[in-house]
Amino acid sequence: LDLNETARYITNKVKDYFKLSCSVYIFPDETGEQCPDYVNYGLGQLENRRFLMGGEQTCIFEKIPEKSGISAGSECFSKERISFSGAIAEISGLAGLTEKIQKLADKMKASNLTAGECRRILTECVYKVLPAFRSAGGTLKGMEEYCGIDVLKNMQSLETLEHIIYWFQDFESVADAYLAECIKGQRRGEIGTAIQFIQENYGQPLRLADAAEKAGLSTAYFSTVFKKETGKSFSEYLTDLRVERARELLGDRDIRIYEICEIVGYPDPNYFSKIFRKAVGMSPEKYRKQITG
């Protein structure tokens, strides 16, 4: 065992982690067999404290284990980990994510968890957000493609807890944007289903509730989303579709106007004429004469 080499190794690690100079004194036991355990323990503590407190902190270790084979934090994980279960359970989506992560981080700083254990808990927090994506048709892979990074690998590569807190702030912002895109895509799919249904059944009596049911949405929500996606209310869209189809059919003189009324969903010719005149600016008869001569 080269004690001088071990001392230099510790000194370099302290300098790398904390940007500090230090002196190392090693007092081995009679045989020197436990010295590597003390070194590994100290290095583990340095890594953990650097992760939790950042790189500009001074650490004082008051206790050194008296038996060999111990690693920093290995005996306390199960008890410490259980104490974090409630805080993790509070995370169920993106709402207030950064604030909840900050609370977790403050608790970690007062704990005996190792850097690896902290990262595992924070990774679990990322997974707690995923149901919000799935409910909108999104996935973790989809988000990674959206933002162009490997989310978990990127987070786990960060050296300090402070960096991870900042990472979660960015994650929440990007996740919000991705979720909005997922919802928009899902909405387009639902409204697309409703539009196809309307186009296939415009000649039948159609109600807003019929289209909403086809889209799998409540009537009130469907009405709001439909107008946002199409720029028209359900009744405006249906009327425009029926009038447009009527204009096409009026170009065929073999089809009587009362027949066209029924084809496009207006069994009352007088009402059809009123709707057509309002939309086109002339009666169906005049329009037919204008386009067919």
Description:
- The chain has 293 residues and is mainly alpha-helical.
- It is 69% helix and 0% strand.
- It contains 15 helices and no strands.
- Helix 1 runs parallel beside helix 2, helix 10 packs across helix 11 and helix 12 packs across helix 14.
- The protein is rod-shaped, with a radius of gyration of 34 Å.
Summarize the structure.
By secondary structure, the protein is mainly α.
Major β-sheet profile: none
Content of β-strand: under 5%
Bulk shape: rod-shaped
Unreliable residue runs: 58-62, 67-78
Distance between the termini: 108 Å
Care to count the β-strands?
Answer: 0
Q: How many alpha or pi helices?
A: 15
Mean pLDDT: 80
Rounded to an integer in angstroms, the radius of gyration calculated over CA atoms is 34 Å
Q: What structural class do you assign from the helix and strand content?
A: mainly alpha
Helix content: 55-70%
Order of helices and strands: HHHHHHHHHHHHHHH
Mind sketching the topology for me?
Blueprint: H1 3-18, H2 35-53, H3 77-83, H4 85-89, H5 97-109, H6 115-135, H7 140-147, H8 151-156, H9 161-201, H10 208-215, H11 219-230, H12 234-250, H13 257-263, H14 269-280, H15 284-292
Helix pairs in contact: 1-2, 5-9, 6-9, 9-10, 10-11, 12-14
Question: Keywords for this structure?
Answer:
293 residues; mainly alpha; 15 helices
